[in-house]
């Protein structure tokens, strides 16, 4: 399991590499009781090792749990 400092380092790396314009495009949503599973395509703008602009993309999965106040809380986020 990642510690808060590991997560902080990961996101700091994104900012260092100028990752911007992050977009999510859901293509599959499955609801089971109070749980939502959302599969999405993601994309972002970044920089390669030489500083040239590059497009990043992949798939993301999010699992949300419905709360007592009817809002949803993110329980799991994973992407490649």
Offer a few descriptive terms:
80 residues, alpha+beta, Nuclear Transport Factor 2, Chain: A, four-stranded antiparallel β-sheet, 1 helix, globular
Structure in a nutshell:
With 80 residues, the chain is α+β, with helices and mostly antiparallel strands. It is 16% helix and 60% strand.
* CATH class membership: Alpha Beta
State the share of residues found in helices, binned by percent.
10-25%
Percentage of β-strand residues: over 45%
Give Rg in angstroms.
15 Å
- Sketch the topology as an H/E string, one letter per element: HEEEE
In the predicted model, the low-confidence regions spanning at least 5 consecutive residues are none
What gross morphology would you assign?
A: globular
* Structural class by secondary-structure content: alpha+beta
Number of domains: 1
CATH topology: Nuclear Transport Factor 2, Chain: A
In the CATH hierarchy, the architecture is Roll
Number of helices: 1
Record the strand order, biggest sheet.
Answer: 1-2-3-4
Mean pLDDT: 90
The count of strands amounts to 4
The CA-CA distance between the termini, in Å, is 17 Å
Largest sheet: 4 strands, antiparallel
Description:
There is one protein chain. The protein has 80 residues and is of the alpha+beta class. The chain has one helix and four strands. It has a four-stranded antiparallel β-sheet, with no helix packed on it. The radius of gyration is 15 Å and the shape is globular. The mean pLDDT is 90.
């Amino acid at each position: 399991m990642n510690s808060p400092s590991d997560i902080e380092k990961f996101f700091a790396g994104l900012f260092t590499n100028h990752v911007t314009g992050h977009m999510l495009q859901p293509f599959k949503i499955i609801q089971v009781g109070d749980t939502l599973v959302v599969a999405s395509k993601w994309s972002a703008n970044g920089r390669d090792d030489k500083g040239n602009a590059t497009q990043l993309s992949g798939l993301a999965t999010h699992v949300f749990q419905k709360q007592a106040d009817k809002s949803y809380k993110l329980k799991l986020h994973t992407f490649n």
